[in-house]
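Lab notebook, entry 287. We have the chain sequence and a SMILES string for zinc ion, and the next step in the workflow is to get a structural model of the bound complex before anyone spends time on docking refinements. Request logged below.

Task: model protein plus zinc ion, output structure tokens.
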Amino acid sequence: MSSESRCSNSQMIEVACDLCSSTETRLLFEKEGFRHVRCKKCGLVYVNPRLKAHRDLQRISGTGSMGEDQISPAQINRICRELAIFGVYRRMNRILEIGAGRGWFLSVARDLGWKTWAVEINQDAISNLAHKGIKNIIVSSAEDFDAGRETFDAVRIWDVIEHLESPVQCLKRVYDSLRPGGFLRLSTTNFNSLSRIVNGSEWVYINGSDHIVLFDPATITKLLKSVGFLRISVRTRSFNLRKKLYHPEREIRDRFHPLALFRKLIDETARFSKLGHQMIVEAVKDV
Ligand SMILES: [Zn+2]
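Result returned:
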């Protein structure tokens, strides 16, 4: 660990690759004391070593309860459009969101007649969900939840898996909890995005105390295939030049970058490539 590390070695734990169990890695960079490595065998990028207390911290802090107190009619319309995608798979009328945060997605789903479930570990988020009248809150880590087999038509996981100690374990649970032919939709950041390539380790989403597994289109596809999902689709969107440090938290002022002149154009067109910084991933369980 570097001299600027905020953590002593006793607070950290060495881990193997979650995707392939290999311990062979190559150091990519270190940011604020957190080493970001790439698995030599499967290409997964992850933080190693990571905080021992990572999951405990998810319960009491982190980004689990982030989100707006109020959302606009335009945002509600966006959620309705997303729910139309889920609607194609509606048979048993049951939908689960893992890491439901402020609960806006599930609130709108409920208003449209879905029976809703949430898996949530963050104490503030659990309070928010209960306050919103969200039923069926499963208080558990995303890796350990038990909702029974073949319970849901659809599962949503939005900007959550990059926080998890084991995305593989979570996705196995999700797979078991979906009915045959059930639908998964998730979002996570794209390590191979133009935003990350331009910004390097200063990229806004590189936060080793919180984002501990960083996927790209190839590794997210490997993950879903390894669990058994079919019809996997990966799309990407958005480009920005935001840079950030987290300890203490502050934005890094942009030095001029020539791509800034084309930022809006690139943002509009990133969706036609695999280089956008947000990945939207869809997959289906075999019938
Ligand atoms: Zn690996």
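Notes for the group: The mean pLDDT is 90. Worth checking against the assay data. The CA atoms of residues 10 and 115 lie 44 Å apart.
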